[in-house]
């Protein structure tokens, strides 16, 4: 009777998680946090189906299916390890740990998970952890060792939750702690002799449902609010970028070129129109754009500035990675600051360098100039010069979960570094 009830609950929980996965898949914008949640839900669903299928086979009572049931149990255990690892990654992302810490911790947990899976696979063949005889699941001498990895991963998650509790809302903490708490309840049930796999995945499914209701629903609301803010920020940034003096100077340069070199003037008009169109199209654009699109806009801007300032402005490119996305109008304002407030403040001019490179799961985009520089401590009091940079910084944080770092030294130059996670 217990097996039949547990089997039914497993299938029902798998169905509910499958519906949640479909809902997540239909989300217009999938944040890294949502993607990790989808991985957790996917492996928990797979484990529930395997556990339910194992119960189904055991109820048939056919000794010829012992091998099949054993294989399903092993795969379910491995799914549980991946679920525990994904849970730790989810906590990391939610509390906002540094990327280097995340990478180091991920490597350790992955290595531990592989070792645990190999040990479980080898040990179970000798009956150390469990056996299946005549359709019946029989725990082995070291059965509790199956859950060592789950306990370690959850313990790491609990430590992060309490250490960085100030970064989390009360409901977030409650939802996150539901996973290790229910796993503990599952262990107690097993110790008391209930069930084959202690209802572990069933209770994990309950935890994922709680997380979805308490965290993901709140995140979706925040995303909707952020999208509205982003539209307002795009309009504000667009208006600051299309400044009357820039329009006037560009048109004056084009007019001068019409008499000197009509072909250059024609190209300049084309670049000028493309520059204006990109700014106007960005007003209501919320979705990130490809780096290629943003880079084209930068080149159009730099062409117009080169037309005006000639040899005083030089540009170097070192684009080691171009396959990523970033908010629209996020690179051009940074380059414009480097040109206007950096190199062109020097009588002899200078150079702007745009570089991209891949660093693990991130893209590092830098805009460097050898201009006059400034004192970073006075940024907040510098008014118009850094309005565009602050706007860019906020949009990269909201849309890409990235960071922007500004380093400058008077007389040496300025470097703006954007770290953008790969989707």
Describe the fold and architecture.
By secondary structure, the chain is an alpha+beta fold. 64% of the residues lie in helices and 13% in strands. It is built from 12 helices and 9 strands. It has a 5-stranded mixed beta sheet with strand order 4-6-7-9-8. The chain has a two-stranded antiparallel sheet with strand order 1-2. α2 runs antiparallel to α3.
Please describe the structure with a list of short key phrases separated by commas or semicolons:
two-stranded antiparallel sheet; five-stranded mixed β-sheet; alpha+beta; 9 strands; 423 residues
Q: How much strand content do the residues show?
A: 5-15%
- The strand order across the widest sheet is 4-6-7-9-8
Q: What structural class should be given to the helix and strand makeup?
A: alpha+beta
Query: How much helix, percentage-wise, in residues?
Result: 55-70%
Tell how many strands the DSSP assignment holds: 9
What is the CA–CA distance across the termini? 46 Å
Q: Average pLDDT across residues?
A: 80
Global outline: elongated
Instruction: Give me the number of helical elements.
Output: 12
Q: Spans of 5+ residues with little confidence (pLDDT < 50)?
A: 380-384
Give the biggest beta sheet.
Answer: 5 strands, mixed
Radius of gyration, taken over Cα atoms and rounded to an integer in Å = 28 Å
Order of helices and strands: HHHHEEHHHHHEHEEHEEHEE
